UniProtKB/TrEMBL annotation:
<keyword id="KW-0963">Cytoplasm</keyword>
<feature type="active site" description="Proton acceptor">
    <location>
        <position position="368"/>
    </location>
</feature>
<feature type="binding site">
    <location>
        <position position="344"/>
    </location>
    <ligand>
        <name>Mn(2+)</name>
    </ligand>
</feature>
<keyword id="KW-0413">Isomerase</keyword>
<dbReference type="InterPro" id="IPR012889">
    <property type="entry name" value="Fucose_isomerase_N2"/>
</dbReference>
<dbReference type="InterPro" id="IPR012888">
    <property type="entry name" value="Fucose_iso_N1"/>
</dbReference>
<feature type="binding site">
    <location>
        <position position="533"/>
    </location>
    <ligand>
        <name>Mn(2+)</name>
    </ligand>
</feature>
<dbReference type="GO" id="GO:0008736">
    <property type="term" value="F:L-fucose isomerase activity"/>
</dbReference>
<comment type="function">
    <text>Converts the aldose L-fucose into the corresponding ketose L-fuculose.</text>
</comment>
<dbReference type="InterPro" id="IPR038391">
    <property type="entry name" value="Fucose_iso_dom1_sf"/>
</dbReference>
<feature type="domain" description="L-fucose isomerase N-terminal-1">
    <location>
        <begin position="14"/>
        <end position="181"/>
    </location>
</feature>
<dbReference type="Pfam" id="PF07882">
    <property type="entry name" value="Fucose_iso_N2"/>
</dbReference>
<dbReference type="InterPro" id="IPR015888">
    <property type="entry name" value="Fuc_isomerase_C"/>
</dbReference>
<dbReference type="InterPro" id="IPR009015">
    <property type="entry name" value="Fucose_isomerase_N/cen_sf"/>
</dbReference>
<keyword id="KW-0294">Fucose metabolism</keyword>
<feature type="domain" description="L-fucose isomerase N-terminal-2">
    <location>
        <begin position="182"/>
        <end position="361"/>
    </location>
</feature>
<keyword id="KW-0479">Metal-binding</keyword>
Amino acid sequence: MNVHVGNRLQGSLPKIGIRPIIDGRRGGIRESLEEVTMEMARNAAAFLTEQLRHSNGLPVECVIADSCIGGVAEAAQAEEKFARAGVGLTISVTPSWCYPTETMDTHPTRPKAIWGFNGTERPGAVYLAAVLGAHNQKGLPAFSIYGRDVQDIGDTEITPDVKEKLLQFAKAGLAVATMQGKSYLSMGSVSMGIAGCIVDETFFQHYLGIRNEYVDMTEFVRRMEIGIYDQEEFEIALKWTKENCREGAEVNPEHLRRTEEQKSGDWETVVKMALIARDLMIGNPKLNAMGYGEEAFGHNAIAAGFQGQRAWTDFFPNGDFMEAVLTSSFDWNGIREPFMLATENDTLNGITMLFGHLLTDAAQIFADVRTYWSPEAVKRVTGHQLEGKAANGIIHLINSGPAALDATGRQSVDSKPAMKPFWDITEAEVQACLDATQWCPAVDFFRGGGFSTDFTTREGMPVTMARINLVAGLGPVLQLAEGYTIELPDDVHDKLDQRSNPTWPTTWFVPNLTGEGLFKDVYSVMNNWGSNHGAVSYGHIGGDLITLAAMLRIPVCMHNVPEERILRPSAWTAFGGMDPVGADFRACQAFGPLYR
């Protein structure tokens, strides 16, 4: 099976700029520091390029300034090089005292960090403190990277705590830079009155640097009827679908069931919908050869959403196949980067999925945050006593739409269930995900037919559920909950699952509890969730999400991340270090959205 690595969007990939900062005084001081400073920069670059890839699988590149930066002239030279190279974030490194305002990165929107070497000979920590003060005074927030233990000057080892911060900053900074200038494509408009579907262009443009694109769902009809899709690929895709997507239970009453002929036509339609949605997002050069030059370009969409309900699904097959297959890490063409495509065009959940994808490189789960099941309620309905991680209750994540097939949990890391970057997924894991999924004829309120994914996520995956919400008078806020997936005995699962809908994918989620506040119990997490949807990422990435949110000036209103994993710009402390949540809100308000 082919593995497709490459940039499918317009625009070059952002690079990490490394700025070696030096004490510019000649006559022995600068000369003694030249090699050790540049070596520090080379080590940082080597570490990051070894550890990081872009979400499309391509390696991350670092660009090091041509010389150490001892003053404004060399800072300007580095900036010119970075501009030509497409640098999207910078890390300034130094083992010594330097002149802060003369050497600092003053780019207005680029994420920036300073690694000050913890040494005693010519302490980089003194420069670190001074330049962070300058950044804060000038309104250019920067992240502090400072090792816990003193090292000897010339020690080339990057300590584990510094490595962790370098990666956390770099991955979030790359996410910021990758989003800039891309598009969110709304296919249709607002679904069933869900406010998250309402496109807030101010949020997209000022906070994310993303432009908004729109097409009516009738564009799907036009392309299907005229044949504006790759006919050859359609045949390949339909054959693959028939071989790998097995139909599941028919739960509709007899008078609402579609005939086998209708279902056969539905399969053809939903496969065409998947091809068309992908082409709308990223274009397809084959359309140009067919005489459709405008359509061949696509909308350069890094994320998108499909309205579906009700205008489409009252008459045409639903979008579940399209959304499930595109958001998975594989299809008939092989293994490839998943697309971020939001059910019901919930733009806010779509962007949260995008955050998770850019931070983990893996597929994301779109889900309804449907039901809190207390231990007492489960016992009453099923006779089963919840235990283990589920002992305090569970949250039923189940969606009247799709979820990426990766969410079956049939991939593995260290023999444990996982959702992996596509380049690490094996052919056997792809087949296992497909085999674990059934495609059930859509339920009665999808009057146009179609098929919904039905699977249960495997137990034991560390996951993070997150959601961006917009609040009048406040703007965007991010909430997140780290936890685990669990499984229930089959008979217990069936009794609970069928009370919602047996044709939809289920993820049983248990948040990590702190015993206080919004995480004092599972009920409080459910009761304080800000919308009906959530995006779920593999891994405990709450710290990374908090770092990304701070870069974009989006406050975090709810999280259960331990303090030691939180990395925000140093200025946040000045807004109330004794009250980190309040400080986050005050800092984001004071600095304002990143792209003003």
